[in-house]
Amino acid sequence: MIATQNYTWTDEQKATILEHQAFHMNMTIFLNNVVMEGPTKTFPRKPKSNLKQVIMTKKTKGVQKRSHEQLHEYLVENFIETKKTIDRDVFLFKLEDITTEEQALEKLKDGFKHLKRQNAQTLFFFIQYGMLLNAVYKKIFELRIQGIITITWGKWLLENIGIHPSYARRLRECAKSLGGCYKLYNVGLSFTEIFKLKKELVALFNSSPEMNTFWQENHDICSTREMESFEPSLPKWPKSKLDSLFTHAKKKKNI
User: Fold this and answer.
1) Lowest mean pLDDT among 41-55, 116-130, 157-171
2) For residue 120, is it within any domain?
3) Closest of 179, 176, 217 to residue 76, by C-alpha
4) What is the residue range of 134's domain?
């Protein structure tokens, strides 16, 4: 019975498949000879073409992007109080002290709260440091033009600071996109997640003047000495006010 071909390959794809098919057939014969006759000085040449790229289907990520309203709500839901220092003792524990589900939940919830606070602090550090890098870059660029500094920016960073240029570039890029959006310093999401959402965040902040104003509202950045030792309640963003942001934006869109 003759098998029916259900898929039509391009001539180039088919040539790649046949090339690899011939290689594996030759390899089978070659290995049979090695088994019978022993070691050899020759070896079949493997094709340079990429068979995997031809025959493997591409995986598509079924991730649905959030709307501006959903993204805004997601960020606000992850607001965390940042005026309180992070307590390292929260992460110290003895397994024998956790004997009930309630104790486990309490310990995990308390720890996660501090993790989110650390995330917010780290995001603050990264964006602010990226802004500092951008400012220094301009100065170094001027000094290079004047001939005072003769090495590249990347080499200057590596030799004088010890920071890798690719890492510095990532921080600078994040600062260029998100610098000035001070409300982000309240968000307890990881820097990795924020960096992945960078384009969506920029689109969100530019979706309406009200949204831009909300996220650029000057954040009350306190010094380490001013950080509180008690647990203040986190003010919640009123839903009525949240709805008004998008209601206004939708009205403008329909005009």
Assistant:
1) 41-55
2) yes
3) 217
4) 78-225
- Residue corresponding to tokens 């969506």: 200
Could you tell me if residue 17 is inside a domain? no
Report the number of distinct structural domains present in the chain: 1
Can you tell me the distance from the alpha carbon of 44 to that of 60, in angstroms, rounded to the nearest whole number?
A: 36
Residue 4's pLDDT band, with cuts at 50, 70 and 90, is low
Cβ atoms of 245 and 210 closer than 8 Å: yes
Model pTM greater than 0.70? no
Residue 246, domain member (yes or no)? no
Mean pLDDT, range 43-59, rounded to an integer: 81
- Tell me: the pLDDT tens digits for 110-122? 899 999 999 999 9
Q: What is the pLDDT of residues 165-217, one digit of tens each?
A: 999 999 999 999 998 888 999 999 998 899 889 999 999 999 989 998 999 88
**In b/e form, how buried is each residue of 65-74, taking b as 16+ CB within 10 angstroms?**
eeebbebbbe
Rounded Cα distance, 217 and 51, in Å = 54
